[in-house]
Amino acid sequence: MSSMSISGRAVSKRRHRDSIRALLAKIPILTYHKIENRREVGINALPPEHFQAQLACLQELGYTTITFHDLLDSPELPEKAVILTFDDGYASVYEHALPLMQPYGFRGVVYAVGRFIGRWNDWDANLGGIRFRHMDRRQLRELADAGWEVGAHSLTHRALSWLDETSLHREIFGSRDLLADVAGRMPASFAYPFGMHHLRVREMAKAAGFAFACGGINSAAEAVDPLQLRRVPVYQFEGLSAYRKKLRIAGLPRLEYLKLRILSWPAVLTPLYQKRFRRELFLEMEGMPGVYSNNSND
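The structure assignment produced for this chain is given below.
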């Protein structure tokens, strides 16, 4: 790690909110999903060899990965920091991303879907009948023990802005408690499913104690808001030239930004599919026992 901190000095206690905002304005946040060779009807499954080339690119450019926990508490941050996030907590992240990142000394932030830990991703549309397994509790704990951050991604991966107050509370507070139990540490950050959020959702995330919450490429970026952080997605068909552009946090080329916005829109169709074909599944999920209770004092 560089001896020079991104903030210009080491800190001995939790950073001030204004200092964190200034840091976030300089740090690119990238979004991955699956790291594996299995193909899907989609663009989110990145072959491991492509991912490894991207890691080598980061090292060549002088980047070091950090987590949101580091932003809060690390006494010193690298001069060139990047945050690699992995949505949904797929088993392929444990199987491929973890061993590929370890030789570089890189760590990531994995966002797990609480009620689907160790299960198939039946919350998704799974076009073509292709399903993917989520990490189990042991695998998530191993990531946490390896210095990764295990963040919350709701309980059932539904569009939170469409839920009533009770269900919204359950999804955010429940995933917080469940993931804290799994990782042995309270998560610092939350990722909104499908990148969808509005004021009521953000206020609930804040009430649950999350210091950070991530959206997608459409999230606000003009003034850095820790509860609606913009992330730049990484897709399977992109080369290293496009990858380098994603690291330009202060100046993502307009055409690249428009391309990414267009590519993100199909994800909005999944919540519609869920309402039509997955209603019974989510009713079952809400009845599952767990560390969360409706009688929570939060």
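Interim note for the steering committee: The chain is about 35% helix and 10% strand. The two ends are 38 Å apart (CA to CA).
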